[in-house]
Design brief:
The chain is an alpha/beta fold and about 250 residues long. It has one domain: 3-Layer(aba) Sandwich (Rossmann fold). The chain has 7 helices and 7 strands, in the order E-H-E-E-H-E-H-E-H-H-E-H-H-E. The radius of gyration is 18 Å and the shape is globular. The structure holds guanosine-5'-triphosphate and magnesium ion. Belongs to the TRAFAC class TrmE-Era-EngA-EngB-Septin-like GTPase superfamily. AIG1/Toc34/Toc159-like paraseptin GTPase family. IAN subfamily.
């Protein structure tokens, strides 16, 4: 039987403490990223980790690469901070297809969270939304089966007017439930690929953003390119069925 390969590249973004590292661990099926509840806590630098799975169907191999990022600061998330994180995490994957997963905490969601999310989308222009899935952690706090109704009741209409591509995650769930959540996210990523006709996100599509930002992004991209050239790439050790930590970017 022919082996089919699926490869997903996910970049987790969002405010400090929103649950990015916990979500990364749920996706990989292994605790590779340090979370606030573990020793070490807050994520300070970009980290990439990969899991290769061979299970969903006979003859199918699925690779999930996750990049965990330092959170945007609670009080002063600057445009520069967002540019640095997004460019550094995305540039190394060119020309592969990546999907941004913007993580927000459902429990304790505030107006500030909404405004930061809005700033993120505005910073990167109208194309960004087509490459972004919003993921709400704290699914264990949602009591009703109809998430949309409950999210709408708690957050108001604003969020849904911006984006309808979202998913709810419970990072405290059982391993089986975490796997099912992961499959749901991967299906959403396939939709994102289809919407974009598999054309990868590139920083060229930022032409419509303003002059200042375009220059800042270009500068950052060439900085990352230079770093990448100078850095000897570490061999990624992959292990079927296991998540392995690859490198700190
Ligand atoms: N109840 C519940 N707690 C969660 C969930 N996801 C994450 N948490 C908790 O939220 C806290 C923050 O999680 P992290 O994964 O460290 O958040 P982060 O976004 O990586 O944080 P920074 O690296 O500081 O930006 C931890 O105490 C997690 O255990 C969830 O789905 N449900
Ligand atoms: Mg973290």
């Amino acid at each position: 039987m022919a082996v089919s390969n699926e490869h997903y590249r996910i970049i987790l973004l969002g405010k400090c403490g929103s649950g990015k590292s916990s979500t990364g661990n749920s996706l990989l099926g292994e605790d590779n990223f340090q979370t606030a509840s573990g020793v070490g806590g807050v994520t300070m630098e970009l980290q990439r980790s990969v899991a290769v799975q061979k299970e969903r169907k006979e003859g199918q191999r699925r690779t999930i690469e996750v990049t965990d990022t330092p959170g945007f600061s609670e009080t002063k998330a600057t445009t520069q901070e967002m540019v640095t994180t997004v460019v550094k995490s995305a540039t190394v994957y060119r020309p592969e297809f990546i999907t941004f997963v913007y993580v927000m905490k459902f429990n304790g969601y505030t107006r500030h969270d909404f405004l930061m999310y809005k700033r993120f989308l505005e910073t990167f222009g109208p194309d960004m939304i087509r490459y972004t899935i919003t993921l709400f952690t704290g699914g264990d706090y949602l009591k009703r089966k109809n998430h949309r109704d409950e999210l709408e009741r708690l957050m108001g209409q604003d969020f849904f007017q911006l984006s309808s591509n979202y998913i709810v995650f419970d990072n405290t769930a059982s391993p089986t439930d975490k796997k099912n959540q992961t499959y749901r996210l991967l299906d959403k990523i396939k939709d994102v690929q289809a919407v974009n006709s598999k054309k990868p996100f590139t920083f060229d599509i930022l032409e419509r953003t303003d002059e200042y930002l375009r220059k800042a992004i270009k500068r950052k991209v060439s900085e990352v390119d230079k770093d990448e050239k100078e850095k000897k790439p570490k061999k990624a050790k992959t292990d079927v069925g296991k998540a392995v930590k690859v490198e700190v970017i």
